[in-house]
Amino acid sequence: MKNGSMLYPRETATRRLKSLDGMWDLRFDPSSTGSSEGWANGLDTSITIPVPASFQDFFTDKDAREYCGDLWYARDLYIPKEYEGLKLALRFGAATHRAIVYVNGQEVFRHEGGFLPFSCDITEVAQCGAENKVVVKLNNELSETNLPCGTVKVLKNGKKIAKPYFDFYNYSGLNRSVYLTAIPADSVFGYETTYAIDGTTAQVGYTVKTASSAKVEVSLFDEDGVLAARAEGATGTLTVEDAKLWQVGKGYLYKIVIRLLDGDTLLDEYYDFIGIRTVEVKGTDILINGAPVYLKGFGKHEDSDIVGRGTNIAQTKRDFELMKWIGANSFRTSHYPYSEEVYQMADREGFLVIDEVPAVGMLRSIANFLDASTGAQTNFFSGDHVPKLLERHLDDIADMIERDKNHPCVFAWSLLNEPETTDESAVPYFERVFEQAAKLDPQKRPRTFALVMNSVPDKCKCYQFSDIIALNRYFGWYVNGGPEICDAKEAFIAEMDKWQALDLDKPFIFTEYGADTHPGIHKLPSVMWSQEYQIEYLKMCHEVFDSYPFVKGEQVWNFADFQTTEGIMRCDGNKKGIFTRQRQPKDAAFYFKKRWDSLPLDHKSNK
Ligand code: GCB
Description:
Blueprint: E1 16-19, E2 22-29, E3 47-51, H1 62-65, E4 70-79, E5 87-92, E6 98-103, E7 106-112, E8 118-121, E9 130-139, E10 150-154, E11 160-164, E12 178-183, E13 187-198, E14 201-211, E15 215-221, E16 227-232, E17 235-240, E18 246-247, E19 250-251, E20 254-262, E21 265-274, E22 279-282, E23 285-288, E24 291-292, E25 295-299, H2 313-326, E26 330-332, H3 340-349, E27 352-356, H4 368-371, H5 386-404, E28 410-417, H6 426-440, E29 447-451, E30 469-472, H7 485-502, E31 508-512, H8 531-546, E32 551-557, H9 587-598
Parallel strand pairs: 25-26, 25-32, 26-27, 27-28, 28-29, 29-30, 30-31, 31-32
Antiparallel strand pairs: 1-12, 2-3, 2-4, 4-9, 5-8, 5-12, 6-7, 6-9, 10-11, 13-14, 14-17, 15-16, 15-20, 18-19, 20-21, 22-23, 23-24
Helix pairs in contact: 2-3, 5-6, 7-8
The structure holds (2S,3S,4S,5R)-3,4,5-trihydroxy-6-oxo-oxane-2-carboxylic acid.
């Protein structure tokens, strides 16, 4: 089924919005009999569950928390009489990992993929001035034909559990907000912008996609509400004199207002916030508004106590305050596109974001963080699952770009995390994935992917696709840890020398490096897992980064401790956080603050 508009839902003079957040009914369907038993009409259940949130961490019994399979959400929805005549849609910020939506017992939409929004038209089936029944059949199983990749294990007692090929817990459910949107039939469907800056003047190119032949008018207002430019037509240019640029650390935003007019009659109005800035990779520099930047920041996760991967704007706010405090200027949305509210905050705060599609687990292993260092080969890109997986991957890239292309904070796309690149079969796959991003992004942002430990110069077949080479490296943790850290450093340098010898003339950044650290462990001399070792490890890595002029960024793994699947390598989750899961600093946070406060934005620039 075709996805509706990906625009962030907003209320305007012509648009109405009703939140469906709150308590929903929930029913697990382990034997998948719900469909034949008519659950699409409503659920016979006593369980209720908050939305947005992952369902897992509310429960005190393990079967519910680890539930893997079909699960149904339902609630009543009163649709006001005034909405009659408008186009009605249900807009899900994310439904993890696949969903079938029913309204008043009728199927209205099917969606695959758990980290991007979809909007389904319900005009035909909805009743205005009456209660309606919204039911969503979710499924949270992992497979090799969907992103992120993994599998399902059936236990001897018949219960299924998720087996991710990735290192984060399979949080699922209605993780993001749900809205009823009511918009006019003649409406704005989407828009995009491009930027050219000449002295103090900016040319903002725009294209508006509409479901209408009405006249389009586009206006830009500055932060004081003063009109900065106006233009007419579905495609055009807004000339902004004395343009205030969106800068790193100072995210100046213009309000863009798009109106559809029939003579003087307003048919539709939509607004959003954009930032005037350019992005370019030149030689080994990453340039924002023509000026070089050095990335300081984190790989993150959407992960918090109780709500799991559910949108948590309160915690997001805390995260931004901590990132500002520590002197960071960037982060990667590892390993999936985050809630839209995160990008909105990054736009305002002037953070640079590497937006990552949920293409993780493309190395067939349930402990890929270990196998990556051993040179294990799984020939992931040569199986029968590949055509279907590629199709899903291309779809998710399209949806991510459609959703996020107007955010000034997004300066690069990460198209895969730690895929297996040591086999030729990866090459045609990469070609399609990289082409897709280039084709769909109006701003032609740089594209990258995070290279796993064994994607090294003489083995990796795919690094040439990247505009920015992004390395995930764990010398001193997964290899040569503890007293062997001196060997780790040598091995690290040996690899970096090989990259240097290739003379790629591209920026390198570290998208991951880190050491698990239990906040309760202090040790003199250090041992692995102690706070002291984390700092020792980080200092070693930084010495290596600092000695290569083409290294233009460091995003440590991870911003905070986060939940993973259980296992002997994980102690109630991954503990590589610089902050705890409750967002309090480990000692390393103070070490970073000192380092990052002293590194200028144009650190190591070629200018
Ligand atoms: C990686 C993965 C990340 C893991 C991390 C680790 O390479 O990209 O998802 O959490 O290593 O801590 O092992």
